[in-house]
Structures are given as structure tokens and as C-alpha cells.
Design goal:
The chain is an alpha/beta fold. The protein contains six helices and seven strands.
Length: about 240
């Protein structure tokens, strides 16, 4: 039998076959790349890496600043829950003024004494309550300290070596005794008066007989304090 002649492919058919082979080859190459990508760990773009690193640095920086800021704040004073009666004899104490003058409570018997407790942070920070109390005590000192037997002493609690008490004295025009209860690394005065529930800014008024007359735990009222002082001076 005569052999059948192969049907000759037209140019169009040959082009279609070539395009089909090319398409299949591209699909196979794409599948291979996807498989390789699945096996390799994904890498972050450089921009994202830099951004994430910057955020981490910012977080650590803010945390460091927060720690530094808190370390500069004034320490906590008192916190006792029991309050001693105001008729008791005031606990005696001695305190060295920042200028070196020694203050002794017993030596001022026969005078009216105001004891002001003030926490001082590093670099001289004080809370708003004490900014107010110092201004009020300045007014009281202007009225009583020279002509009447009235004595004011501010007992600072400054646990940092750079509390700048001298700068505070100048800034707030403190003309009365100012000393640091922590200059001997102990808080013996604060502990002695803890029974009166003292807090930062507390002012204790002591009569001429050295008995506690009043305890002011809030902002001082000049009129009220003056009336209390005048009463004690007349006693």
C-alpha cells in the first residue's frame, strides 16, 4: 500500500505550537520560582527594617527619660495612718542649717515654732504644695520672726547629693532655718513625727510649752495660722 503523505502544517499552525510551548515554559518557570520562594525565608525591605529599628530606639529612649524624670522627683514623706493628739510634747530634735548653724527644738522653748516638712528632689525639684507653703511661711516670717518670739524651721528631705538647697533658699527667699534631715543618711526627724501623719508640705505648730498645737496638712491659710500663732503668744 502506498504510504500516506504527512499533512504539511501551515505557517499559522507552527506559530501556534511555538506560542503554546513558550507559554508552558513560562508557566513552569513561574511555578519553580514560587516553590523556591516558599523554601526561602522572607526578607523585610530595608525601609521596614530601618523603621522598626527606629521605633525600638524611640521606645527605649522614652522609657529611659521616664526613669530619669522619676528619679529626679522629690521622695515620699510620712505615710503613717495613726495621728498623735495635738496636746503631746513635740518630739525633740536637732538640725544643722545649710549654713552650718545648729537648730535645736529644746533651745527654743518659750517661743512659738513652726516646723515645715519639705521633700526635695534631685536638682532642687519641689512639689507645688511646698511652693505655696514657702510663700505663706515667708509672709508669716515677715510679720513675726523679727519682733515676736516665733521661729520657723523647714526640715528638708533631700536624698540626692545635688538637691541644691542653697539655690532653693535664694529662689524662695527663705530667711528661716533650713536643713536636711537626710544629711546623716537617716530620717530621724521625719520618723519622730510620723505619728502625726505628716506628708510632703505638712506644717506643725508648736506652742511655747513645746506641745503640738496644730497640724496643717493642706495649704496654709494665713488668717487661720496668724490667729493660731497670736493665741499661742498670748498663752
Amino acid at each position: 500500500m502506498p504510504k500516506k503523505e504527512k499533512k504539511r502544517e501551515s505557517w499559522k499552525e507552527r506559530q501556534q505550537k511555538r506560542l503554546l510551548k513558550l507559554q508552558r515554559a513560562q508557566e513552569a518557570y513561574q511555578i519553580q520560582r514560587e516553590r523556591e520562594a516558599e523554601r526561602k525565608p522572607r526578607k523585610w525591605p530595608k525601609g521596614k527594617i530601618i523603621g522598626a529599628f527606629s521605633v525600638i530606639i524611640l521606645i527605649f529612649g522614652m522609657y529611659g527619660y521616664w526613669q530619669y524624670y522619676n528619679s529626679q522627683l522629690p521622695p515620699t514623706i510620712g505615710g503613717a495612718s495613726n495621728t498623735s493628739p495635738t496636746s503631746e510634747i513635740a518630739p525633740t530634735f536637732s538640725l544643722k542649717d545649710i549654713n552650718g548653724t545648729l537648730f535645736s527644738l529644746n533651745q527654743h522653748a518659750g517661743k512659738v515654732i513652726l516646723i515645715h516638712f519639705m521633700a526635695v528632689g534631685c536638682s532642687g525639684q519641689i512639689r507645688d504644695i511646698n511652693k505655696y507653703q514657702l510663700s505663706q511661711l515667708g509672709g508669716l516670717c515677715s510679720k513675726y520672726c523679727r519682733e515676736e518670739p516665733v521661729v520657723i524651721v523647714t526640715v528638708a528631705v533631700a536624698t540626692c547629693p545635688n538637691s541644691q538647697l542653697a539655690s532653693l533658699r535664694s529662689a524662695y527667699n527663705i530667711k528661716w532655718f533650713l536643713g536636711n534631715d537626710y544629711d546623716d543618711q537617716t530620717l530621724d526627724i521625719v520618723n519622730a513625727y510620723a505619728g502625726y501623719s505628716i506628708d510632703d508640705g505638712t506644717v506643725i505648730l508648736v506652742g511655747k510649752n513645746l506641745r503640738v498645737a496644730q497640724v496643717y496638712r493642706d495649704k496654709l491659710s494665713l488668717d487661720t495660722v496668724k490667729a493660731n500663732i497670736d493665741e499661742l503668744l498670748e498663752a
